[in-house]
Design brief:
Elements: E1 4-12, E2 16-21, E3 24-29, H1 32-35, E4 44-53, E5 58-63, H2 66-76, H3 83-92, H4 95-104, H5 107-111, H6 118-135, H7 149-164, H8 169-182, H9 188-199
Parallel strand pairs: 3-5
Antiparallel strand pairs: 1-2, 1-4, 2-3, 4-5
Helix pairs in contact: 2-3, 4-6, 7-8, 7-9, 8-9
C-alpha cells in the first residue's frame, strides 16, 4: 500500500492532481482543504496517502495533514460512506470545524455540507462522536442547540446571513447559539441582531 508520496506537482485541479515521483506520475484525488494549500505546478509536494483498493480499481487519496487523513478514515468507517463522499465532506467544511461539529453531535451543521443528507449526517454524528471527542483531547465541546422546525430554519438562515457578512462559520455559530438562548420571541431579525451584538 502507498502511504506517502513526495515529488513534483505536474497537474493541479480541484478534482485530482498528478505527482511525478521518480518519473512515474501518480494521480491522487484530494479534498479542497488539501487543494487550496498546494504549491504551484512544478514545485515539490508531499502528501499522506490512503490507497483504496477495489476489484476493478486502485485509487489514491491524498492529504496535507494527518488530521485530514484521520478524518477521512473516520468517515469511511461509517456505514454508507465511501471514499468519494468522504472527500466531498472534507471539501465542504474545514477539518477542525468538521471535527468539532462531530464531537458536538451537530447533525444540522453536517447536513449543510453539499451531498450530505439528513440520515448520513445523523449517522456521522452518532457513530463518530466519541472518536472525535477523543481526538480533541477530551475538550468540553458545547452541544448543538436542541431546536425544532421553524426555529431550526431560523438558526440556519441566521448562520448563513452572518457568514455572508464576512464572519467565520465558527464565530457565527457561537454567536447564534448564544443569541438563540437569550432571545425570548424567536424571529430571524431579532436572532441576527442579538448575534451581531454578541460578535461586537
Amino acid at each position: 500500500m502507498i502511504a506517502r508520496l513526495a515529488g513534483a506537482l505536474l497537474v493541479k485541479t480541484p478534482q485530482s492532481i498528478i505527482i511525478d515521483v521518480g518519473g512515474v506520475g501518480y494521480e491522487v484525488i484530494v479534498p479542497l482543504s488539501t487543494f487550496y494549500g498546494l504549491p504551484e505546478t512544478d514545485h515539490r509536494v508531499e502528501l499522506l496517502i490512503h490507497t483504496h483498493v477495489r476489484d476493478d480499481a486502485l485509487t489514491l487519496f491524498g492529504f496535507r495533514s494527518s488530521l485530514e487523513k484521520n478524518l477521512f478514515l473516520m468517515l469511511i468507517s461509517v456505514s454508507g460512506i465511501g471514499p468519494r463522499l468522504a472527500v466531498n465532506v472534507l471539501s465542504g467544511i474545514g477539518p477542525q470545524e468538521l471535527l468539532e461539529a462531530i464531537a458536538r453531535g451537530d447533525a444540522l451543521r453536517l447536513q449543510a455540507i453539499p451531498g450530505v443528507g439528513k440520515k448520513t449526517a445523523e449517522r456521522i454524528a452518532l457513530e463518530l462522536k466519541d472518536r472525535a471527542c477523543k481526538a480533541l483531547g477530551g475538550m468540553d465541546i458545547p452541544q448543538a442547540p436542541n431546536l425544532k422546525g421553524e426555529e431550526r430554519g431560523m438558526v440556519e438562515d441566521a448562520l448563513s446571513a452572518l457568514v455572508n457578512l464576512g464572519y467565520s462559520a465558527k464565530s457565527a455559530k457561537t454567536a447564534v447559539e448564544r443569541a438563540s438562548q437569550r432571545a425570548g420571541e424567536m424571529t430571524l431579525e431579532g436572532l441576527i441582531r442579538e448575534a451581531l451584538r454578541a460578535l461586537s
